[in-house]
Amino acid sequence: MFLARRPGPDGFEKRVALKRILPHLAKQRDFVAMFLDEAKLAARLAHPHIVQIYDFGRDGDAYYLAMEYVCGEDLSALWRRANELHAPLPFADVATILVSACEALHHAHEQGVVHRDVTPANLLVSYDGTVKLADFGIAKSQAAASRAQTTVGTLKGKVPYMSPEQARARRVDRRSDLFSLGVVAWELLTGKRLFQRRSELDTLRAVQMSDVPSLASVRPDVPPALAAAIETALEPRAEDRWDTAADLAHALLAWLSAAGETPSKTRLATTMARLFGGDAAERRLAAVTTPSDATAANLMLPPPDVPSEPRLSPLNPERWIPQIAMHLHLPPPRLPPWRLVGPLLALLLSAGGLLFGLHSQRANRALSAGLLATPAAPAASPTVATPTAATATAQPPLTAPALKLVPRALHLAQDPPGLALPPPVALPARPAQKSATRARHHDRQRRP
Q1: Which domains, from first to last, does the chain contain?
Q2: Which residues are known to be catalytic?
Q3: Which of 110, 219, 244, 315 has the smallest number of Cβ neighbours within 10 A?
Q4: pLDDT attached to residue 84
């Protein structure tokens, strides 16, 4: 968004807000088509509470849209400033803002246009007390919106201000805008956020469930008639809300009349001066005339919503789970992180036990193979005579001594002093008893 001057003859000029497509978005066909749709829809609307369109054109490859410049603040700035000063907006001023917004929405609805993005950032209040509805970027004709809400795989609009049917990607009509306006009204009266949560997934689920606390439970001094009018707009089922924006405006005007008030532009201008200073308009115009680098940078950015939505990584499931839930028309699954701790620990322990078992089995096999290996027989000493057969038969058969595992640290490189070990004794060779027995067997077979 840029601030520009529209020159005329004899030094005439008019300040306009210039909206254009940024260079890196100019090549995206969907974004260009949405920009063109905004220009066509906004050109059909002519209402005192809707930002007017002055011109639409193309400069090279870039489209631009020249709109009415509103010297003031959006409702997000009013909400933030009122909280900083601990001075809530007066009930009559809130009703005045809502009546003007209802008149703008009713005019758009009668032209067959559903805004679909009614948020504090798109409701502007000038320093002289004029309320304007802006940004029809994602607006659609009511017939098209009833056929297909959005492109497959996307959610258009700011999630905290969506209606339940819009959050589920169902068919929407003018009553969806009334729910969004009811969320704005609830936040203006209470100074708190209604559906904003820690993550976009939790916010989407809260919108789909539409568990709205009563205004009396948050701010007991809200007049009952005013609270009833706003809470009717916040009904989860579209059939239970106001049928048209004009009906909501009539309910608000009835409360103003019963309270002895009327929609007053002058009273709203006084509130703007209390919040932002009596010379806010002069300071804004002076900053626009001779902008500094910081001011110029701010003028090129659209007014942010409050608070800003958290940026999510493309790999974060909170970015794509809402889109999956949108196609299923069901609330997205909610799985808190603490519930994953138990299954994860069980999986890690099972994997560790399996690896330990495999390693122990392999070690046992290697140890068994080393113990059962047959050692080489020692060579016989030449000085020892071979025993006779009679001596061999008299001696009992020898058995191999049991092997004992000795730690490596106990093996000695040499004998300690004073310790004399007997010389090794060579084991006698076993007689060939099996061969003699086999020969006698063959002799018996040869006998007739």
Answers
A1: 1-69 (3.30.200.20), 72-276+305-333 (1.10.510.10)
A2: 117
A3: 315
A4: 92
